[in-house]
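User: Need the bound-state model for NAP:
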Amino acid sequence: MPAALKTPILFLGATGYIGGSVLARLLARPDADSLEITALVRSEAKARKLEAFGVKTVLGSIQDTDVLENLASQSHVVFSIADCDDVPQIEAILRGLKTRRASGDYPILIHTSGTGVFVTEAKGMYPRELVYDDTDPAQIETLPLEAQHRPVDLRIVQADKEGYVRTYIILPCAIYGIASTVLTAAGVQNPYSVQIPTLIRAALARKQGGMVGRGAAVWNNVHVDDVADLYLVLYSAATAPGSTTPHGREGFYIAENGTHAWSAVGKQVAQVLYDRGLGGSPEPTTFSARELVEHFGSEETGNFLVGSNSRGVANRSRAVGWKPRYTNEDMLASIAPEVEAVLKQQGSR
Ligand SMILES: NC(=O)c1ccc[n+]([C@@H]2O[C@H](COP(=O)([O-])OP(=O)(O)OC[C@H]3O[C@@H](n4cnc5c(N)ncnc54)[C@H](OP(=O)(O)O)[C@@H]3O)[C@@H](O)[C@H]2O)c1
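Assistant: Bound-state model below.
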């Protein structure tokens, strides 16, 4: 298809765990030939590999705000999957999309936030019953302004309200599973998530599965493939002619398909290590303050990642046709291969 007729898409986070999984799906669409995808990439080696898939690349960082603004101004759709907390980045994207609007297009922003926005501290001691519903904007608006990701999300909603961009914000929870795509096979995409692999590395280092406090705090979980599917469902819905898919204030889409107490994840890690002779007990033990610093970087980070409460329900995501396939059982079953992967990275297997 001639370049002038193609849909210009700017992709941020193409080499990441989530972003690579989304990009691989975009490239596999039957209409992929009608898309002109440009990825902003930090590494020249990764850029070369992405180009082999027909992706145009620009070398640079999201901190290069002039570059970002200019790229956004040339895009009908922006996938923002690099950083959910960088305010100058989002302001640059929005400035670019405002310019795009002035040229007659009505552009689309699909941005990645996270259910970290719902977090309340518990130090692992108790669950919290409050569940945020993505079909309830008034409830989401009760979140504190200083909540994680909120400063970026609020700027996005305001831009939609001003009418120059349609915005869709995806909020994944604790994503699990080792990504397996054409981009991981090519060595260009990070295949690993954050929370469960960090818990596993900590357990291997102390030779014992662990948890924060009593492990009583609760999060949602979702498989990386299901998360990536949600981006594609939303992309199709948002780009459909005459789309009425909710956006802006109503454009929050949670990605979750399971709920766990962190004790259950700690228990599974402890069991896997114990079965392999790598852990002392099949029951998780509580991380000391010193261990949280050692294995998670700080007490605060450990408490946030695997000791806090964060609960939401993906009613709006399901209402637009998202059908997640993986369940809590899959999350628990994903831990043994994750342990294998960490051991392999550490050169122990
Ligand atoms: N994983 C989860 O469970 C989860 C859940 C909810 C929300 N999130 C959020 O979703 C976002 C993506 O997460 P992820 O797990 O996919 O992380 P990831 O695997 O580390 O991927 C991040 C992507 O963004 C790119 N990137 C980061 N900083 C950049 C910069 N300054 N300039 C240009 N590119 C940059 C990375 O490029 P390089 O290849 O150069 O590093 C990579 O492509 C993050 O904001 C994360 O907090 C993640």
